[in-house]
Amino acid sequence: MPLCGLHNMVTAGLFSEKKLQDAEAIANDYGYATIKAALNFGFLTRKEYVGFLEEEGFPLIDIRAEELDLLYLEQCDLQHLNAFLYCPVRMEADGLLVAAGDPMDEKLIAGLSSKFDCPIKMVAASDLDITWLVHKYRGEYYVKEAVFSLMRKDPESSGIITFTDPQLISIFGMIMLFFVLLVVNFVKTAIFFNLLLSVTFLFAILFKLFLALRGSQSELQESVTKEEVMAVDNSTLPIYTILLPVYKEDKLIRKLIWNLRALDYPRDKLDVKLLIEEDDDKTLNAVRALDFPANFEVIVVPFHMPKTKPKACNYGLFFSRGQYLTIYDAEDIPDADQLKKVHVLFNKLTPDYVVLQGALNYFNKNENFLTRMFTLEYSYWFDYMLTGLQTVDTPIPLGGTSNHFKLDKLIELGAWDPFNVTEDADLGVRVFEKLYRIGVVSSTTLEEANNEPFNWIRQRSRWIKGYMQTFLVHMRNPAHLVQRIGWKGFFGFNFFIGGTSVTFLVYPVLLMFFFVYLIFDLTAVKALFPPWVLYVGIFNFIAGNVLMIYINMLAVFKRRYYELILFAMLNPVYWLMHSIAAYKGLWQLIYKPFYWEKTNHGLTKMSHSSAAAAASTT
């Protein structure tokens, strides 16, 4: 007698015996139903399985439209419901009605009959609808843990409070002091603050130049040779979890699947989680409509504020099985050997390395002005800045994707802060504070550069707001921060995390003074700022811009993006866009600190084939 519907599929000639054995082996390793393994690891499509069920007399019911008696569902553990794809619906005259992904699974029927001590009446339902229901109604504990766990375990590291009382007192105290000094001596106060802003602007850029030069002096990235990657025995590789947090990315699902298939890693050891929000039926239906096999498990994240990427990732951790874990966005194209490189490098490094950051760059770099500037920025950031930070023993802000963790250490650190909209940068600082280390792996993930100005400003305002949040969280107790990371780390954190936001906010103020001085012959301005003050301020402003242009020019050499070198001259315009985003981020920090500004993807005119070609030549 068959134990599950897949055995019948073998009899019907729709499924080979070898495939069934492989699916059962994966199901045993991962501790879930064979049908789940078959769907998650691309052994068959959902359309094939639905057609088979109908032939066997099990047409799918729309379980989301059924009257659900939660009494029976609440007696089941979410992990078990999720793993074996079933959902108790309600008690009927002839027994308990249960919807299952495989209604012919006799082992499941026997277990439920014993659990509820009654006959079990099985009906078929879509695995996606079952997943949606069980997470919606049984995921409350897990989603609350995803939101509040860090706040409870390590309240000093949680961004749930944007401004602490001492910070508010300090901020308003400095504002009051500024106005008092203006009343006492307007001219000297104005001169002092003008010089302070211009010197801070120049020093922050000088620090970035120093880091870029340190990063470009030698190959500072931890090296993994092709020979080492080729020598890896696939049978010794651990399970690797990949989190794919998506929201309304239905247009990118097909591309995402093809990108995952390109990874050089044993399919049966990839624990891929597609994290879909409860209200995102578009993406769920895009998965349902696929006409070719997918290689990921869908996890539905129950609704809970804040609605952020880190909350979704924290929820996904409860269902992750890997020794290592990484995050990719829906449009990412990672190097095929990236996961193997990470495995090799972790084995070469000391145990205190708990995360490796891969480089990020763009496949549509030559699409327009914005994508070219974005590519220059990412090139100097990931190819030079991060490697430079490694040499000066200071916190390294992680990128949004392609950061590879030891899963047990990630959980120990408290995972991501769901209240921080740049959770990656915040986690990078926490890694340093907990005396762990971050490495850089010489592997690139190509992304889609934002090619639309308003969409870019939405994305960048969230990033800058997140840097402000991270700065406020870790500067709640400056003396304590110095004790944890030392003076070198303290100054590095202030000028790299805090200084980045400050330079963008200060830039338009200095730009205004520069143009007022050049264009207008205002006696009032000259009386307020003696010539030497204006000369110092203008020198700092010009020098800062020249240095940033130089840093952008450096960025092209490692990847040989020589066609972009002249665009570095336009960095002052690009920085002005940053300033617009910075002031928007500051406004949201005050009024909507946890609001996750959605960035639209899939806007590029480059086709999937041209993106793949770009990946193969990088």
Pick out its properties:
618 residues, alpha/beta, GMP Synthetase, Chain A, domain 3, Spore Coat Polysaccharide Biosynthesis Protein SpsA, Chain A, 8-stranded mixed beta sheet, 4-stranded mixed beta sheet, 25 helices, 12% strand, elongated, disordered C terminus
Write the layout of secondary structure elements.
Elements: H1 5-11, H2 17-30, H3 34-40, H4 46-55, E1 60-61, H5 70-73, H6 78-84, E2 86-92, E3 95-100, H7 106-116, E4 120-125, H8 127-138, H9 140-153, H10 165-184, H11 186-217, H12 226-230, E5 240-246, H13 253-261, E6 270-277, H14 281-288, E7 297-301, H15 309-317, E8 324-327, E9 333-334, H16 338-348, E10 353-362, H17 369-391, E11 403-406, H18 407-412, H19 423-433, E12 437-447, H20 453-474, H21 478-519, H22 523-528, H23 531-559, H24 571-591, H25 608-616
Parallel strand pairs: 1-4, 3-4, 5-6, 5-8, 6-7, 10-12
Antiparallel strand pairs: 2-3, 8-11, 9-12, 10-11
Helix pairs in contact: 2-3, 9-15, 10-11, 11-17, 11-21, 11-23, 17-23, 19-20, 20-21, 20-24, 21-23, 21-24
Task: Describe this protein's structure.
By secondary structure, the protein is α/β, with parallel strands linked by helices. The chain has 2 domains: 5-138, 2-Layer Sandwich (GMP Synthetase, Chain A, domain 3); 196-618, Spore Coat Polysaccharide Biosynthesis Protein SpsA, Chain A. Helices cover 56% and strands 12% of the residues. It is built from 25 helices and 12 strands. The strands form 2 sheets. Strands 7-6-5-8-11-10-12-9 form an 8-stranded mixed sheet, sandwiched between helices. Strands 1-4-3-2 form a 4-stranded mixed sheet.
